[in-house]
Amino acid sequence: MSITYNIARVTLTKIYNIFLKTPAVLDSKDFFPQAFIFVDNWAKIREEAKVLIDNVKNIPRFHDLMPEQYKLSAHGEKEWRMFVVRAYGLDIKENMERCPTLAKLVRLNPNVKSASLSFLAPGKRVPKHIGPFRGITRFYLGIDVPLDAKGRPGVVLTIENEDYRLGNGESLLWDDTYSHSAHNMTEEWRCALLLDIYRMNMPAFLRFLTNIVLGLARLTIKWRGIFPKEFA
Questions:
Q1: DSSP secondary structure string, 184-212?
Q2: DSSP-derived pairing of the beta strands 162-165 and 155-159
Q3: How many Å apart are CA 31 and CA 19, to the nearest integer?
Q4: Which of 41, 86, 105, 168 is deepest in the core (most CB within 10 A)?
Q5: 93, exposed or middle or buried, with CB in 10 Å at 0-12, 13-18, 19+?
Q6: Measured between alpha carbons, how far is residue 191 from residues 48, 98, 115, 119 in Å?
Q7: Which of these, 89, 130, 142, lies nearest to 113 by C-alpha position?
Q8: CA dist 210 to 23, 176, 184, 232, Å?
Q9: What are phi and psi of 191, to 5 degrees?
Q10: What parts of the chain have a pLDDT lower than 70?
């Protein structure tokens, strides 16, 4: 399965690269104008996330959901856990109910194709990698980010060799087919909101291709039985 995944990822990237010439980091005003809605509600989302982190071991590891991501998720024997409320357009009813504020925001924004609370364990390093295809962009919002000894956000997100320290309520939109990594350099869990946003301003052919890819992803999720069969 991982070989098939990698072949599909490389092929899709080549196709999108013919038509898209945007940089790694994107302006949310142009590519995700609804970003401010999530930023304005980060504190409410954090209250919901804090309940989850009390039982963080019950949250699936990333590779439990996607075995293809084992090398990233299990790297260094530190944990990367993902609480998914929407996966490629499928709303996970049980998880939506546990995060009503986040669920409401996601439902109001159909261009948000996936939404997860990402938990990085103390000391966790996610090695350099690239995302599957350019039909979506990645939005990152700091929800509960521990500080380092100097009082700075203690988690570094590196995109194309540029470091970003994003604290609580701070966000970034980027194209995750560019090289990126993350490192939690603290002794506490970090929580961030990760959204996959349907890329705006694509030519019609790429919109058609993106819709096919997202549809196949939904079918795969249902076929694998990754989440409860009862979707919202």
A1: E-SSS-EEEEEEEEEPSS--HHHHHHHHH
A2: antiparallel
A3: 16
A4: 86
A5: middle
A6: 11, 16, 13, 5
A7: 89
A8: 19, 15, 32, 23
A9: -120, 130
A10: 1-7, 64, 67-76, 228-232
Residue 11 to residues 18, 199, 205, Cα–Cα distance (Å): 11, 18, 15
**What does 68-115 look like in DSSP terms, one character per residue?**
GGHHHHTGGG--EEEEEEEETTEEBHHHHHH-HHHHHHHHT-TTEEEE
Distance CA 68, CA 139 (A): 21
Rounded to 5 degrees, φ, ψ at 100 are -60, -35
Structure tokens at 77: 């024997």
Q: What pLDDT, in 10s, does the model give residues 125-164?
A: 999 988 878 999 999 999 999 999 999 999 999 999 999 9
CA 124-166-180 angle, 5° bins? 55
- CA distance from start to end of the chain: 28
The Cα 211–Cα 103 span in angstroms is 22
